[in-house]
Amino acid sequence: MSYQKPRSQNDYKDLIWSLLPLVLICLVIAGIASQCSFSAKGPTQGQIPNFDVKSALTDDARHLSFPIRLPALPDSAPDKWTPNSGSHDTITGTGGGDLSTVGYISPEGTYMQLTQSNASVEALAKKYAPVKVASGSEQRGDHKWSVFAEPGSEPAWISDFGDVRILIKGAGNGAAFNALSTAVGQAQPLPRS
């Protein structure tokens, strides 16, 4: 007959010896599945999906009830902006409306979101901003951007263009926000037909 300690006498060493086989099994499975790699360099950026932002926004201009703009962003190195995604959504309730969103990877490798909508500034801030009250503003060309920011979160800039509200949000630095807000401010609405 083998001796087994009462549970009240188990300590952290017993816990470690119990978990060690499970950890080893997980590492073996991850290695077999090639889902785990160790690198001293750290993570590397994967391939950016191919997304035709011009076709997507042209289609949105035909089907949505508000003007859609296609910002002219550099598409060659070193200042290359790469479109990588697009989506549609709707904000329901007071001040709500339709949303046309496209995503870009900035020259620094950060994701930036551009949302165009007929929803109110307040509804956009409620859905996307880290705080509900603007913490400042930025003037870019003819457009004033309300800045919604707090430490530790991605800032959001929202501007009312009169016939459409524009939101920019992302992990980019000041140069990325400046480039995207300036480009969308200079863009003319796409034709509706």
Automatic annotation (TrEMBL):
Pfam families given for it? DUF4245
Transmembrane ranges? 15-33
Q: Which UniProt keyword terms apply here?
A: Membrane, Transmembrane, Transmembrane helix
InterPro entries per the record? DUF4245
Out of the domains of life, which is the source?
Bacteria
| Protein name according to UniProt | DUF4245 domain-containing protein
What is the species of this protein?
Answer: Nocardia tengchongensis
Which classification does the entry list for the species?
Bacteria, Bacillati, Actinomycetota, Actinomycetes, Mycobacteriales
